[in-house]
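Appendix B. One record, verbatim.
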Amino acid sequence: MTSIIVTGSTGFIGKHLVSTLSQEKRDLHLLSRKGKDGSMSIDLNCVHEVDAVFAACNADTVVHLASDVRSIQSEKDIACEANMAINVMSAIQNSCRFIYLSTADEYSSSPNPISENGELHPINPYARAKFEARKALEIKAKEMNLELVVLRPFLVYGMGQPSHMFIPQLLKSIIDDKVFHYSARRKIRDYVHVSDVVQAIRLLVDCETDIGGVYNIGTGIGTSLSEVIKIVENKIGQTLNVERDQSLGVSNPDRLVSDSERIKKEIGWQPKIELSCGLSDLIETTCA
């Protein structure tokens, strides 16, 4: 049985991944900052803590999801993201597949779907942190002769999505009956459901061939912020009170839509949940 270490197991994607893998009776070793939900508390910036945990686990696969998403602002924060990832990889003591969750925000805005060879131009601190961590991991993986799999999911949504994100904020404005403010810029995003992302990770964990490299995870469908609002309005049967704000969304690319042909061809992954269906489920659960 494959032994899997999951860092950031109590985060948004981590919770969904652990739920799926647990149902399959996997040998899981769960790590998180606060040690909740059956995970072990660990400071990934502490080399001694990380080394001790990995020496005891002897895992075949590491899924590194841990990230201080909302607190990444300074150069120090960016360096910390890379440091955590390198500490985790350096602690591996046997042949192992290392799956690292990066972000599509590494890419430059593009009028066309973006493949893994697309131009990289991270313009916000979070994207820069992921960019620097990925580069450091690529170097370290070569030194250690490890198989590094880098995932670039596009805009992941679903139950438990961080509250500062567009969809949770939109739904909260409905519950609170308040004006919803959003970017006046025409932001186009590829919304991929968290369960589809989890399925991609699961397939990558189980793949028996060499799959090192970068994989986009997205639907290939671009949807504007206004279109998301329209879908929600149609679902709830009312017009929302919204206002556009020129000051919002300045540090984010205007258009990010995935070309995910590589992961489809190499491991047979396909997105299954359309945005309209995913939003319906969220509305029923959140706004009921």
